[in-house]
Model the fold of this input.
Amino acid sequence: MDALRGMDGQNGPSGGRVLGIGKILTSSNPVALDVVMAAMAGTEPRRIPTTRIAGERGLGPVDLSAVEIVGDYEPIPGFRLPSYRLARSFTGIATAVVYPLMRRWPILDRQLCIKCGRCADNCPAVAIDMSPFPAVGRDKCIMCYCCAELCPVKAMTVPSLFRGVIQNLTGR
Ligand code: SF4
Ligand code: SF4
Done:
């Protein structure tokens, strides 16, 4: 894990605060790696769904005490976590009803786009077609927002929560 520089706060993946963390972590077990970094960021690793589920599937340790740490380990001073309040408040039916409305697909500003194709070339889900502007296939998009992060001219952006609700209700 390259954590020489990291980002904290609410506005990831491209709009948060850049921090000089100065860490590089390696591990033979990726879950253990995530557990250590989560603890250094100041959160309980089980609160991260992918880590918790990986632990439930027996893919690695979820308790920091079960990880053998070699080298220096120290919490990152002042690391600002994203808020969990919204996620915590959803349960059961609310999750089934509200979560789908909160999906947000990246949006393109054609006036800014220079049609370089970087977003399409780096989309891990191969969800972007260039024709000639990038078009996001919502059925494939995993909402990782790499396209917004990598766009050199900020033509691809992450919509606001409100815009996301509009996207879900209208399909536009
Ligand atoms: S990376 Fe940005 S500028 Fe390049 S094609 Fe994609 S949206 Fe357009
Ligand atoms: S958000 Fe991620 S998956 Fe969706 S189009 Fe952008 S890079 Fe591809």
Notes: The two ends are 37 Å apart (CA to CA). The mean pLDDT is 88.
